Amino acid sequence: MAKRPDSHSWIFHGFPELDPEAILRQQPGNKVSATEEERQRARWLWQRRPGGMNVLAYGVLLGAGAMAHTPFLILGSPRLFCLFHACYLLFVLWVVCVFFIKERRYRRWKRDYQTAVARLAR
Fold first, then answer.
1. For residues 114 and 28, what is the distance between their CA atoms, to the nearest angstrom?
2. Residues 95, 50: contact at Cβ < 8 Å?
3. Pseudo-torsion of CA 87, 92, 98, 102, nearest 10°?
4. φ, ψ for residue 32 (rounded to 5)?
5. At what angle do helices 55-67 and 78-121 cross, to 10 degrees?
6. pLDDT tens digits for 39-94?
């Protein structure tokens, strides 16, 4: 498929890792006709970018909890094992919920930021 000269594919180079000004500096031809209001909205959305999730830390905690079952199974009483396992399952559910909440926030932010950047480039 041939590239059209009016194509806005340059917008998505580095998106969403670049701030709005950096994205606009990539525009060929410097034909930015964005209002100050649209620029402020894009900057505001960029500043409101959600933080990342430390997958390594949660993975280590989940792995350590899974390995901690072994001593309870071999040396501990069945009640203590069941109590530990129930607490571990609650922790796993909590980690999964945190992941989904953060992922939902990030997707929503990305959609809003994409809309703001597209308005800037019009």
1. 19
2. no
3. 170
4. -85, 120
5. 170
6. 888 888 888 888 888 889 988 988 998 888 888 778 878 888 888 889 999 999 99
